[in-house]
Amino acid sequence: MKNNIYNFSLKALEEYFIAQNDKKFRATQIFEWLYRHRVTLFEKMTNLSKKALEHLHEHFAIERLNVEKKIVSSDGTTKYLFRLHDGHLIETVLMRHSYGNSVCVTSQVGCNMGCSFCASGELGRIRNLTHAEMVLQVLHVQSELDATNERVTNIVVMGIGEPFDNFQTVLDFCRTVNFAKGLEIGARHITISTCGIVPKIFEFAEFKLQVNLAISLHAPNDELRSKIMKINRSYPLHEVMEAVKAYLAKTNRRVTFEYILLKDINDTTSHAHQLVNLLRGINCYVNLIPYNEVLTKEYKRTLPESAQVFFNVLHQAGINVTFRTEHGDDIRAACGQLRAQTMKEKKR
Fold it and tell me: Same domain for 173 and 209?
């Protein structure tokens, strides 16, 4: 069975060609054709020798993702439901902002983190995505944007799954989409979100690319966070905050804390003051997120006036805080919703 060429990072492809007694730069040539010129046939790699092309045909394949569904919101947000080679489904979202086009990328089939408000983890993690399955989400979106001379400018690894549970593949993915002769997406325009796997936060601090870190917080104390996010039972808040402080000391890069506002659960004035105390003195900003209600969950969206009071408490305390702009609410753009709905329909 031939290898999907997209499963190779640049380093892995360099090592492969060196082992074949070929030149190291062969990998760079191929990467440029795949990711900058976005060719889907080896024959179009016109600066490769006949021998190199024959080798590629013999040992590799150029395989892309299959689109199961594509739906477009009234605000231009586009959700893709991709079917993988083994039949599993993943989601990717294109969000259009004033500053550019952002793609929300999935890192796993399902999720084992078990956050009680999230649709992604309802069926549990089935497997990690491969390098190919991650980069091809971005490549597919970029290929569609090529028709209007647009480009993907930002990436958030915040789709289905816990990125730090697929750590090495996610780092290789970042290197690939950042590659100067490929998609060339700036490292500071890439953000990885974790719910708080503490050892990986320490490891991520050593990552050479200046990729952004976001922490899915969603509660200001251990008791509440353990109720709604089971990861907190393994890595309680004080350990998460120690890791964040170590990350800040190492990288001097600001951390984002994501906080979904859940009606009567984590959105009171008391919770806001607790959050201020937790984050005081930390170089961060808080992204307050309106909850996209999930039919199978009892959680409700915080009322706008309550959300504003929460915001005001943080702002008046000197915490950098924003409301996340909503995208694609009319197409179930929240993580995992379309996948879950499609799977239920197929079962019926």
Answer: yes
pLDDT of 348 strictly over 80: no
d(CA 1, CA 286) in angstroms, rounded, equals: 47
pLDDT band of 1, cuts 50, 70, 90: confident
CA nearest to 329, candidates 296, 297, 286, 289: 289
The H-assigned helical ranges of the chain are 10-19, 25-31, 50-59, 131-145, 167-178, 198-204, 222-228, 231-234, 237-251, 269-279, 304-316, 337-347
- % pLDDT > 90, the chain: 88
Quote the number of domains for the chain.
2
Range of the domain at 7: 3-61
pLDDT in tens, 145-178: 999 999 999 999 999 999 999 999 999 999 999 9
Q: With beta carbons less than 8 A apart as the criterion, state whether 215 and 256 touch.
A: yes
91 flagged as catalytic: yes
- Domain boundary (61, 85, 102) is at 61
pTM score of the predicted model = 0.93
Sign, CA dihedral 172-175-178-180, equals negative
51 shares its domain with 87 = no
- Written as one string, the DSSP assignment of 163-228 is GGGGHHHHHHHHHHHH-TTTT---GGGEEEEES--HHHHHHHTT-SS--EEEEE---SSHHHHHHH
* 335: annotated active-site residue: yes
Whole-number Å distance between alpha carbons of 56 and 47: 13
As a whole number of angstroms, the distance between CA 56 and CA 53 comes to 5
Q: Are residues 160 and 45 in the same domain?
A: no
pLDDT over threshold 70, residue 333 = no
Q: Which of 35, 61, 87 is the last residue of a domain?
A: 61
Catalytic-labelled residue, pool 14, 91, 133, 162: 91
Mean pLDDT for the stretch of residues 272-291: 97
Residues 104, 144, 335, 345: which is the catalytic one? 335
